[in-house]
Specification:
The protein is mainly α. It has one domain. It is built from two helices and no strands. Keywords: Membrane, Transmembrane, Transmembrane helix.
């Protein structure tokens, strides 16, 4: 019985990791800038708005997690 060649050691794609990290940072900055603009135009968010944002964020994260299964 012939032995199979062992798999090469795993090496992460650093370009991809860097690009994803940069995209995440830019997304976070854009989110904060949007909040700052809305805060200055409309005023501080009400409890209902904060609950709505929380629920939609958690639902989105849950959907992403479920779709990975």
């Amino acid at each position: 019985m012939r032995m199979r060649r062992p798999a090469p050691p795993y090496r992460p794609n650093y370009w991809l990791v860097g690009a994803l990290a940069m995209a995440f940072v830019l997304l976070a900055v854009a989110f904060l800038v949007t909040i700052a603009i809305l805060w200055s135009l409309v005023g501080p968010p009400t409890t209902a708005v904060m609950v709505l944002v929380y629920v939609t964020t958690m639902y989105g994260l849950w959907r992403v997690g479920v779709s990975r299964l």
